[in-house]
TrEMBL record:
Catalyzes the transfer of a ribosyl phosphate group from 5-phosphoribose 1-diphosphate to orotate, leading to the formation of orotidine monophosphate (OMP). HAMAP family: PyrE. This is Orotate phosphoribosyltransferase. GO terms for molecular function: magnesium ion binding; orotate phosphoribosyltransferase activity. It comes from Thermospira aquatica. The lineage of its organism: Bacteria, Pseudomonadati, Spirochaetota, Spirochaetia, Brevinematales. Its cofactor is Mg(2+).
Length: 197
């Protein structure tokens, strides 16, 4: 299991930017949760994004990195900032009919060392999708860097080096077994980039 990490500076800025939400949420994975991390509110402040990127870059000083890639939309800002700090190319992929693809002339060259950047990692599903895209284009995934680890249920399933700044513990439920649904006090909302319900 992954250890929990506490970065009090990042936690303070997450709170200050109102990026940590409490309620009844539908995650992009389909799971329900009592907490949601809306990193877009954190990243609306360039100084916060720069600070996070510098902290993550220190964790990846050793391996050679040619390009940083983020998945649209959550990974775009942190990928750009991290690439800027590392002095390498920064690109992003986006979903076309539900599948991540490289567009806008972005490319990953054969043998390039690629760092995947994400705002929040929960189940690792999106990371795996981006990693498959990197491999399809001949790149090598050297690791994953994230602002927040939402304490994934099965972190051992992520087969890459994974570095993050702050852990956020939250309950996660299968929709059929969701205690929040059974209580019926709060409607389930989907605040992420894949739509509202």
């Amino acid at each position: 299991m992954l250890t929990l990490r506490e970065d009090h500076e990042i936690e303070s800025l997450l709170m200050k930017s109102e990026a940590l939400l409490k309620g009844h949420f539908i995650l992009s994975s389909g799971l329900h949760s009592n907490r949601y991390v809306q990193c877009a509110k954190f990243f609306q402040y360039p100084a916060y994004a720069e600070l996070a990127a510098k902290k993550l870059a220190k964790l990846y000083e050793d391996p050679p990195i040619d390009v940083v890639i983020g998945g649209a939309f959550g990974g775009i800002t942190i990928a750009y900032e991290l690439a800027r700090v590392l002095g390498v190319r920064g690109i992003f992929c986006e979903r076309v009919e539900g599948v991540f693809q490289l567009r806008r002339g972005f490319e990953i060259r054969q043998g390039e060392k690629v760092l995947i950047a994400e705002d929040v990692v929960t189940t690792g599903k999106s990371i795996d999708e981006v990693a498959q895209l990197v491999k399809q284009h001949g790149g090598e995934v050297v690791g994953v860097a994230s602002l927040v680890d939402r304490h994934m249920p099965d972190p051992e399933k992520l087969p890459y080096r994974f570095e993050w700044l702050h852990s956020v513990q939250a309950e996660a439920y299968d929709p059929a077994d969701c205690l929040l649904c059974k209580e019926g006090k709060l409607p389930a909302v989907k605040p992420g980039s894949r739509g509202m319900k």
